[in-house]
Amino acid sequence: MSGAALTDISAFDREMVTSFRSDRLHLILLPTEQCNFRCTYCYEDFAIGRMRPEVVEGVKNLIDRRHAELSHLQISWFGGEPMLARSVIEEVASHASQAQRRTPGLGYGSDMTTNGYLLDHAAAERLAGLGIRRFQVSLDGPARHHDHTRVRADGQGTFERIWRNLLSIRDGSVDAHVLLRVHLTPANLDVMPAFLTQVRDTFLDDRRFRVFLKRVVRLGGAGDASMEVLDAEDERITALEEIVVRDGQGESLFEAEPVCYAARANSLMVRADGRLGKCTVGLSEPGNTVGRLLRDGTLEVDAPLFRRWLQGWESRDPELTACPYEAFTRQGPKLLQLTARPGS
Q1: 128-155 pLDDT per residue, tens
Q2: CB neighbours of 298 closer than 8 A, spacing ≥ 6?
Q3: Which regions span the lipid bilayer (predicted)?
């Protein structure tokens, strides 16, 4: 085979190789599935609380079992609202940082999706010191719009405190990056030009901040039936992007990851009760429970269920690798019928 043929590898094949690399591990950890917010479009049911001690031990033991063979460990914190279980985060993050220090060649990165209510400068600085240096915080527009959809569990508004926290991070020297995820809806679209201009002028001179525009979509929550959503091709969205894309600092609404983490074999979600999953959206989907993490750090995995999330690679279907959850919920049981290979 010629050298040219050897290098003629498609982007799809490169992503597939990356997704199956055994020297890379991506853990999505839910330290609690409770939340201090009740966003009107949320799909979670908050049925599970804080991560159990035996699950925390299991996560640390899993890191101990795997770190020597890894080139990169990525830990993503999700919830619920992860900052409600900050002690769990600090315990695991400290353990992961120690594993990196004693393992030559191990790269370690960590990020957090948070509502920002508890993420002031001191908290961000502490977490950054433990390797958590990327935060995603959502805003639904100016206060009068944000406080209508992103409300506390007691019904109170949240915008002013989040904004104050973001300013404290901007004004400090914490070594971290913040992705401001700005949600777009038919209700807030008219105020977005002024709001995004304010965001740009307030934060985007600081290279640690970026903006990502995201349409609110129906994800299976209780409010889906009454929710109005924007069309993905709405030309007004493109005009809004122009406001925050400046000197390469914005992030386009349309620059989605080509492959979802849920389609990657080396990515696992660990829920607060120890169940293993693939997708942070389909938490109530039975097929999203693919196993369990044991206290000693070993994994009990239902191989047929796990393979369902990876079948886009086998069929070479980019839709299935871009969003396996959306694909199988849209197409129904047919997609879930994966024929077992001989000897499997």
Answers
A1: 999 999 999 999 999 999 999 999 999 9
A2: 62, 65
A3: none
Q: 86-101 and 53-66 helices cross at what angle (nearest 10)? A: 20
Find tokens 């191990």 and name the residue: 106
User: For the whole prediction, is pTM greater than 0.85?
Assistant: yes
248: left (phi over 0), alpha (psi -120 to 50) or beta: left
The answer to whether 237 and 253 are in contact (CB under 8 A) is: yes
Q: Which domains are present in the chain?
A: 22-302 (3.20.20.70)
- In one letter, which amino acid is 89? I
Judge whether 249 and 204 are in contact, CB under 8 Å: yes
CA distance 213 to 165: 20
The contacts of residue 341 (CB under 8 Å, 6+ apart) are none
